[in-house]
Amino acid sequence: MLISLSVFRRVLLLLASCWIGLSPAFATTIRPPDFDELVGNSGRIVRATVHSVRPYEDSYEGKRIVRTEIVLNVLETLRGENVTSELRIRQLGGEIDGLGLEVGAMPKFEVGRELVLFLHGEGKFICPTVGWGHGKYFVDRSSLDGVARIRRSDGRMLTSLKQVAEPMHGIEAAALTAGSAETGMSLTDFRINVLELVEQGESHR
After folding, report:
1. What is the pLDDT of residues 107-133, one digit of tens each?
2. Which residues neighbour 131 within 8 Å (Cβ) at sequence distance 6 or greater?
3. What is the pTM of this model?
4. Which of 18, 95, 122, 141 has the most neighbouring CB atoms within 10 Å?
C-alpha cells in the first residue's frame, strides 16, 4: 500500500531550508544549492560508508507512515562534532511489510557505498542531507590511476565546484557509469575545498 504524500503537506512546507517546492501533486522539486550554500547550510559533513539501511513503521497525526534509518560508519568528519564510529540518520519514506511511502527526490542509500554527506544540524528534517540528493556524493575508487574521485548522486562525475549547483540528470542513477573516473575531481581536492570553506565560515563567527 503506497501512502499519498498529501497528508504531509504541512510538514513539507516547513522544509524551505531544504530547497523544496511543491507542485499541486505534491511532488518535490529541488533548487540546487551552490557550493557555498551546500557547505554553509551543513551542520555536519562526513565521509562514511553505509553500514545498514532499515525501514521502520512510524505514525504522524494518527497516520501510519514509513521512515528509514541509515547507519553510517564514519571515516572522517569535515565539519561538526567529531564522530569516531557510527552515525545514525533518518529520513521519511521506505517500505516495510507491504506498507510503503515514496518521497520524490529523496536520496537512496546502499550498504557498502562510500559517501561524502552534507547533513543538516540539530532539528528534525524529512531529508537529512542539505539539498536532498545535492548533499550526497559518491566516492569512486575505480580509476586505474588509483585516485579516489567524486561523483554526484545522479552518477555523473563532479568535474568542478560550479557543477554542484547544476540540476540532477535523473536522481540516483542505478549504475555509476556516467563519465570516466579519470575525468572527475579527486577526493583530496574536494576535501580541501570543503575544509577551506568550513574554516572561512568559522573565522567569521
Report:
1. 999 999 999 999 998 777 889 999 999
2. 18, 19, 30, 31, 32, 33, 37, 38, 41, 118
3. 0.82
4. 18
One-letter amino acid at 105 equals A
**CA 76/CA 110 separation, integer angstroms:** 19
Under a CB-based contact definition with an 8 Å cutoff, are residues 135 and 60 in contact?
no
Query: At residue 15, what are phi and psi to the nearest 5 degrees?
Result: -100, 40
Helices (H) and strands (E) in the chain, counts: 3, 10
Q: Cell digits for 123?
A: 532539528
CA atoms of 4 and 60, how far apart (whole Å): 13
Determine the Cα–Cα distance for residues 54 and 59; give it in Å rounded to an integer. 16
E-state strands within the chain: 20-22, 28-30, 44-60, 63-79, 86-92, 94-96, 99-101, 114-119, 136-140, 149-152
Query: Residue 82 and residue 105: Cα distance in Å, rounded?
Result: 28
**CA dist., res. 103 & res. 82, Å (int):** 30
- In the chain, what are the helix, strand and coil shares in percent, each to the nearest 5? 25, 35, 40
Residue with cell 574554516: 199
**Distance from C-alpha of 86 to C-alpha of 48, rounded to nearest angstrom:** 9
User: Shortest CA distance to 41 belongs to which of 198, 193, 184?
Assistant: 198
